[in-house]
């Protein structure tokens, strides 16, 4: 009887700890998202972001399930920002915004949420894969770098390619480019926006990850 009670108490304690962990990282995401020019940096044709960084680090530390929850929070902040504080292409992220003939739809929700959820899943498996290949028990610097880059790139590449799938014509008109060259324009956005984001994510994931992945720090965090 005592063993069952102890088991229930241990399970409750772990559940509360898990919620606190997710809430902590979620709070960081929200602060970044709603601090002007910090989490989302308007560039006119799109927004650059660093919000994927806590999602990536949370994924590596806490696993893909909690990472997916953090990615969903990321998606919610994007949805709110593009609805309440839109740019010319915000219709690709929210169905509740339109600019003249340009309007969002179900594709907007797919673009807004699916890539961001995967930002919380992919880096965990990339890091674990690199660790398995190197067969090292220590914190893997290459693993952290590649996990950071993969999280940023999965966001940029999926978002921009899904825009092409769902909104290529409207996106071309909104950016005043020819429909025949819209994918070339999308590739330029990936290069100008996505590549620097991936480099920044790699640097931050390495720097922060090497600290948080230390055993004594992980024990304090309960991860």
From TrEMBL:
Pfam families: ECF_trnsprt. It comes from the Bacteria. Keywords: Membrane, Transmembrane, Transmembrane helix. GO terms for molecular function: transmembrane transporter activity. InterPro entries: ECF_trnsprt_substrate-spec. Coiled coil: none annotated. The keyword Transmembrane helix applies. The chain crosses the membrane at residues 20-38, 44-62, 69-93, 105-127, 139-167, 182-208. This is Membrane protein. It comes from Sellimonas catena.
């Amino acid at each position: 009887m005592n063993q069952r009670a102890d088991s229930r108490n241990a399970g409750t304690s772990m559940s509360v700890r898990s919620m606190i962990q997710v809430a902590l990282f979620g709070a960081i995401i929200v602060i970044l998202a709603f601090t002007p020019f910090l989490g989302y940096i308007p560039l006119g044709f799109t927004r650059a972001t660093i919000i994927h960084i806590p999602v990536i680090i949370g994924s590596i530390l806490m696993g893909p399930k909690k990472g997916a929850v953090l990615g969903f929070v990321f998606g919610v902040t994007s949805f709110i920002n593009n609805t309440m504080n839109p740019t010319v292409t915000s219709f690709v992220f929210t169905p509740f915004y339109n600019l003249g003939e340009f309007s969002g739809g179900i594709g907007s929700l797919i673009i807004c949420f699916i890539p961001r959820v995967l930002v919380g899943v992919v880096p965990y498996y990339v890091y674990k894969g690199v660790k398995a290949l190197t067969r090292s028990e220590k914190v893997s610097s290459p693993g952290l770098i590649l996990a950071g880059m993969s999280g940023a790139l999965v966001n940029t590449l999926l978002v921009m390619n899904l825009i092409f799938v769902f909104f290529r014509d409207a996106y071309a008109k909104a950016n005043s480019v020819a429909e025949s060259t819209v994918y070339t324009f999308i590739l330029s956005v990936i290069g100008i926006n996505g590549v620097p984001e991936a480099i920044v994510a790699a640097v931050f994931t390495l720097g922060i990850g090497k600290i948080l992945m230390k055993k004594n720090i992980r024990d304090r965090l309960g991860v």
